[in-house]
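S., here's the first fold you wanted:
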Amino acid sequence: MASTQGAEVLVASNRGPVSYEALEDGSLRARRGGGGLVSGLSAIGPDANAVWVCAALGDGDREAARRAGGGLLPSEGTGGQHVRMLDIDAAVHHDAYNGIANSVLWFVHHMLYQTPLEPVLDAEFRRQWASYRAYNRAFAEALAQEAAEGAAVLIQDYHLALAPRMLRQLRPDLRIGHFSHTPWAPPDYFRLLPDDIAAELLTGILGADRAAFLTERWADAFKDCCHAVLGPGIPSGTRIGVHGLGADADFLRERAHRPDVDERMAALREEIGEGRRTIVRVDRTELSKNIVRGLLAYRQLLDARPEWRERVVHIAFAYPSRQDLAVYRDYTAEVRRVADEINSDYGTPGWTPVVLHVKDDFARSLAAYRLADVALVNPIRDGMNLVAKEVPVVSDEGCALVLSREAGAYEELGDDAIVVNPYDVVGTADALHAALSLPQGERAERSKRLAAAATALPPAQWFLDQLGALTG
């Protein structure tokens, strides 16, 4: 049944725009989140009658949700946005988020499985899939309750692939969009999933009026999967769209010149040493980011091109991700091991070849961006990759970009990047040499063109374009 009153615009995502911390005196402290979605929703203004529905992710969030009694949180703690946090049973959330979204759907779309051994889609998988359904149903029911007649609902990402169909059944009056922030697997890989699960995922998204993706490549892969699994055509009439998320140039340039960034730059310069070139990467230790092969390519550069020894430093920021999953803990350990091995084998008293940091520090990341002569972005597969877009925007002297052809950003930046096959360690080492060898003038010109392409669709416009395409 449609609400007689409610929000005109709704966003749904696993993580919301705010998180809560319970303090010793019993009060709750709100911390504003970042990212393109937060910037995007703020673009429609505080008077837009919008609600963000998200999951309560920690103890503070759960307490805030309980105090709100299942209703909206006070807007003064959320930057003026109305937020409804769902206190989903912790075991259900764990199964849905870690068991299905991050351990199955992420692996399928990023093509990360070692297929002789995995996936094992057994009875335990089916049990977790039931939790994934329940998690999606909780979102669909909350959205149905909060939405005004004919409201626009923008549902985000692989965590919530079933919610559009569920919401459509509850509220056929709504205009529903789904946006995928990941790549989409090609049919042969997508069909690792059991046939009924593959069909359920696709029909879940096809419950939306519009399904959107970061690049044409991912949109085409989704359509190919629909044809392979469900038959020719898009029988639901769902429209397919593409919106390539860009970097927020104004925010990045302002933030990159604050005093804390200047302090981090001074510290990094001390670690690098006078007169040396820099190869910069900033990533989470996420399996798809391909950090280990990037380190091996740098090692190959030092092996094959000894003239670069003591003349270049690889600044590698690898911030731990999903450490509650053993495979991610093992990967983070391997990143450390390879970096330590390179430093042991090649380092000299006055030169540390790899400067590795694993503690997240945004100001330090921006400092590295400003110092970058070369940015290395070599993911196995990536929906977009904003680092590839951010470094050219912030780099003080202009940087060369070594970019994987498997990053979504390749569609927009490939003409001015040095493009690599992410599995080819020798080819990546050659690309690093070519990038380091670019004349300063050519490097600066390429960087200028990269920055222009990278900022063509900033987060606010990206969000408003989706909203306009859904409601227009």
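And the second, which I think is the more interesting of the pair:
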Amino acid sequence: MLLALFATLFSLSTLSIAKTAAEEQKLEAFFKDLEAFTVVFSDIKQLYVEDVENKDLFNNAIKGMVSGLDPHSVYLEPKEQKSLMESASGKFGGLGIVISKKDDGIQVISPIDDTPAYKAGIQAGDLIIKIGDKPVRGMTLEDGVELMRGEPGTDVQITVLRKNQKPFVIDITREIITIVSVKGYLLEKNIGYVRISSFQGPTAKLLKETIANLVEKNDGYLESLILDLRNNPGGVLDGAVDVSNLFIDKAGLVVYTKGRIPSSNLKFKTERGDIMLGSPIVVLINEGSASASEIVAGALQDHKRAIIMGNTSFGKGSVQTIIELDKGYGLKVTTARYYTPNGRSIQAKGIEPDIMLKNISLENEKEASVVDIKENDLNGHLEQEDPSKMSEAEIIESQEENQATLDKETVKKLKKDYFVHEASNLLKALTVLGK
């Protein structure tokens, strides 16, 4: 009887009358698969040690169906959907990390600049094994996110496993997370450094203003620029396209997407107008550079507008669409893949730098402990792909309030950064050759 009910419902809602032999075979196979599902459903209802509500069984079945597609597709219950929307707002009480499920733990893709996690020393690749007194083993990613979020000003203990180290505890005080996306410094005469920590709607506008400020401080136009996208988890696609267009001065594409349905096949074209007027650019990337940051690196690399330096990026090259369902439920499903202008897929491959660098320190020349995590290693899904949907005015206002003072100490720290040091030396050489 249960099978007959399912068959009737599916026939009425999703199936048309088969007109060809092939369609009849597909229809027959469909009902065989449906029968297997209903048999298991019936057995659980009759044999499981406790009575389980039909709603719970259906929700679990849908979750399994969606999560089995890829690491980024997920069926969201009302509480989870609300949590995702809070993440997208750009203002929430939390730690400020981009995470995914990794085996029995929660993996840090990257800490977000100037957030509690960043200040506490959380690093890309860290494996969170305990939140407070609760082990992460067996915990869903959503449960972990819920435990780490909380009222601003409250503390949480995170137990971290880092490569080549024993587990250790970090105490972090939750804050309202407002992401500062652009910072700029004049490293020395004629060499500008700009850090983009995430891509938001007004990021390109902020970047343009930041470079203009550096030109003013330099008392003349910059001869070269370092664009730092390390540990940048991505964000708004339009922000990445607009940033790329600030440096490209020829016709073509910034990025394009391909999916199964026409609306998923999009092309984002270049808009000519290089604000650096052809001056050399080095883009820094690493394992924590994902999504929108990979789009920028790939576009500038394919257009031969910048030299990409660092480590192979994360490899998050898929597009997710969030669909609001009835009664507060939601569906986040992968609908397309990103491709660079030359047709390279970013998904699970990442952007290969033109110049590969080791993760070392200028102070002790010892190799740093960075876990090599890639998109194709993930079992869970990324959070905070779109870190802000505030209005441009709100984001700009919050960033002006939180913008760090461009002081000498910051520049000194940057000069001790091996990646920045190597990029600076390369730009000096390119400038001399250009003359």
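Why I say that: Confidence is low (pLDDT under 50) at residues 365-389, 403-407. The two ends are 83 Å apart (CA to CA).

Talk tomorrow,
H.
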